[in-house]
Amino acid sequence: MEHADKTRKGFRMPHTFVIIFTIILIAIAFTWLIPAGEYARFENAQGIKVIDPSQFNSLERTPVNPLLITQYIVNAFIKNADLIMVILFSGGAFHMLTKTGALQAVIAKLARRFSGHIGIFIPLLSLVFALICTTQAVNMFIAFAPVMVMLSLALGLDSICGGGGRLSFWAAPSDFPRER
Fold it and tell me: pLDDT tens digits, residue range 37-85?
């Protein structure tokens, strides 16, 4: 009797580009399968535009040509170049701060200074971020989420507390819902 010692291969995650390309292909297939249409919109009592689920209007189908995928990707990059650059430069700056140890040093210093004053420090930090976000784009401060988690861990709190500090980002008046 022959024993085959085959090592069983586990699931291996495909490359990121394969996942993204698969999602794009699925989205293109949906443009051919799902009927086109839109719901009627109206302003409710609070002055917010909402949809009326009982009024659906069919539209002419405009399925996406699969041969134009690369053109759509390039056009999307061109249209969102400013956001892409902000993300790239923010990521690069964050990487430099962590590799040099500057971020860890600042967090350690803040943790030592405010270790006995957590009840004051957390609301103060949330207020500072909320005030910053009133004048700046909130997306630019998403990179501070891991910093808040690191700071809360250094203060002896859990990571949920650091994640809760990010609520100040969305509490800023500049981030209220608005029609686009």
Answer: 899 999 988 888 998 888 988 899 889 998 998 998 899 999 999 988 9
Which H or E run contains 169? helix 167-170
What Å distances lie between residue 162 and 8, 93, 144, 150, CA to CA? 41, 21, 10, 7
Q: How far apart are CA 137 and CA 147, in angstroms?
A: 18
Q: How far apart are CA 115 and CA 59, in angstroms?
A: 60
Calpha distance 80→85 (Å, rounded): 9
Q: What is the pLDDT of residues 113-157, one digit of tens each?
A: 877 777 777 777 777 777 766 766 655 666 677 777 777 788 787
Are 59 and 36 contacting, i.e. CB atoms less than 8 angstroms apart?
A: yes
User: Distance between CA 173 and CA 132 in Å, rounded?
Assistant: 11
Q: Which of 141, 135, 140 is nearest to 172 (CA)?
A: 135
Q: Comparing C-alpha atoms, which of 116, 94, 118 is closest to residue 106?
A: 94
Q: What is the DSSP string of 68-113?
A: GHHHHHHHHHHHTHHHHHHHHHHHHHHHHHHHHTHHHHHHHHHHHH
Torsional class of 100: left (φ above 0), alpha (ψ -120 to 50), beta (otherwise): alpha
